[in-house]
Design goal:
Layout (H helix, E strand, L loop, with lengths): L1 H22 L7 E12 L2 E10 L4 E8 L15 E2 L5 E5 L11 E7 L6 E8 L2
Antiparallel strand pairs: 1-2, 2-6, 3-5, 3-7, 4-5
Keywords: Signal
Pfam families: TPD1_C
GO biological process, one term: cell fate determination
């Protein structure tokens, strides 16, 4: 009987932990940007791969980056739908393929050094 009670308590605790995770709101700080060198040169510039990742359960269909001063000699993959509207902000917008913990946003660019992207805004959807 004690083993059955322990199993039931474990299931209830697991359910509560998952429910709490689903209902807790994700924040901008739940997104992280990582960059790495690819080892490829494009027009004599180092190529960089950018990952925008999250461990949060929510989806991020829109992410705004501070791109003031960003330069690249390599075209950004158009499927990522990066909008460089004001010269200061880049919007990564793809409502059909939001950033999730299982699907990061990735893109490549080529410049002499890595660019210090900052996330300045997000749209968050928690299913």
């Amino acid at each position: 009987m004690a083993a059955m009670n322990n199993k039931i308590i474990s299931i209830i605790l697991l359910f509560l932990a998952l429910a709490f995770q689903c209902y807790s709101q994700c924040q901008l700080s739940d997104l992280k940007i990582e960059q790495e060198r690819t080892g490829v040169k494009v027009k004599n510039k180092q190529e960089w791969r950018v990952f925008i990742i999250t461990d949060c359960i929510c989806n991020f269909p829109l992410v705004a980056l501070n791109c003031s001063g960003f330069q690249t000699v390599e075209p950004i993959d158009p499927s990522l739908k990066i909008v460089h509207s004001t010269g200061k902000f880049c919007l990564i917008a793809d409502g059909n393929n939001p950033i999730t913990r299982f699907r990061p946003a990735t893109f490549r660019y080529a410049w002499d050094s890595s660019f210090p992207f900052d996330i300045v805004g997000v749209e968050i959807y928690c299913p």
